[in-house]
Amino acid sequence: MEEEIKVLILKDVQLDAELMEYEMRREGLKFLSKRVETEKDFIRELDEFKPDVILADHSLPHFDGISALEIAKKSSSHTPFIFVSGKIGHELAVNMRKKGATDYVFKNNLIKLVPAIKRALTERDELEELMSSRNQLQEALKDKEVLIKEIHHRVKNNFMMISNLLELQSYYIKDKVDFDLFRDSKRRADSMALIHEKLYQSTDLKRIEFGEYIQDLTTDIFDTYNISPDQIKLIINVEDIMLNINTGIPLGLIINELLTNSLKYAFPDDRNGIITIIFSKTDDKFTLIIKDDGIGFPQSFDLKNTESLGLELVNNLTRQIDGVVELDYVDGTEFRITFEELKYKGNI
Length: 348
Ligand SMILES: Nc1ncnc2c1ncn2[C@@H]1O[C@H](COP(=O)(O)OP(=O)(O)O)[C@@H](O)[C@H]1O
Ligand SMILES: [Mg+2]
Known about the structure:
By secondary structure, the protein is α/β, with parallel strands linked by helices. The protein is built from 9 helices and 12 strands. Helix 5 runs antiparallel to helix 6.
């Protein structure tokens, strides 16, 4: 203990304080001390003197040690508070500990005083070091969260840029089929952009509320294809399920493909119809159903051997999430995808 320490002594008897000072000097402790005996002075000196350690009696004529301890803990909770007093009962001793007293020294055994002070100051330093590294860690964590948000934001912006470029390029296309190809590609970029938008808005940063995502995605898709909700009714029945990015991106793209298909092909000649999206979870198994009551597929259709890009994508993306896709086209079209969530691998 090389540096001079400031010791605040709460004692009504001057001689008791002097005995303590004598003991500290005898042990070679470098210190500056101040004695107080009233609550008012005690509070003032906590603030002005800013002691490194407090030595207090438990009973004083107009004040008491336990109240002093409570006050000290509130204003500077790490400052060691040592009771130096005559014999006390068990109950009081327990109470002192509970309220956060650092130590207790009998006044007729002052030889223990300096070791108690040294121990208390070492503990305080260790605690403060711990607190400061904890604060540093919290700061670092906060910085990292900001960075992750920033990355999701930029990834979203990049997807939006691709989407805009595809749209701009499509203005030069005269052929309707080619134009549709660009529009479909733009939608795929949009559905991925939306995942990243949800990610930086989520407090979790790794997972998004997938039900909410489905709601927004389907609204966007209806907008892109200019579909009136009067012509095609959309029923959404999705549970509040959190999904990570490894599952969310492929599943978002699957929904995008299947819903656009229903809108494009199930209801030709301005037919009316209903599309239903159901997303639920039982135990560890997730089920996504996208169905429409439209014209359906030809009986000979084989989903596993399709050459067209959209359904090929659905097959591949389902494989990516270790899922199974089934197609039922007895009454309109029903796609059912079942999977278990992929474990987050920490790769954003
Ligand atoms: N919900 C549906 N109802 C009726 N036919 C569909 C439906 N979904 C897809 N199809 C048929 O399957 C074909 C393949 O779809 P897809 O692989 O997504 O390719 P694309 O959409 O580029 O034509 C479509 O061209 C369409 O004829
Ligand atoms: Mg398609």
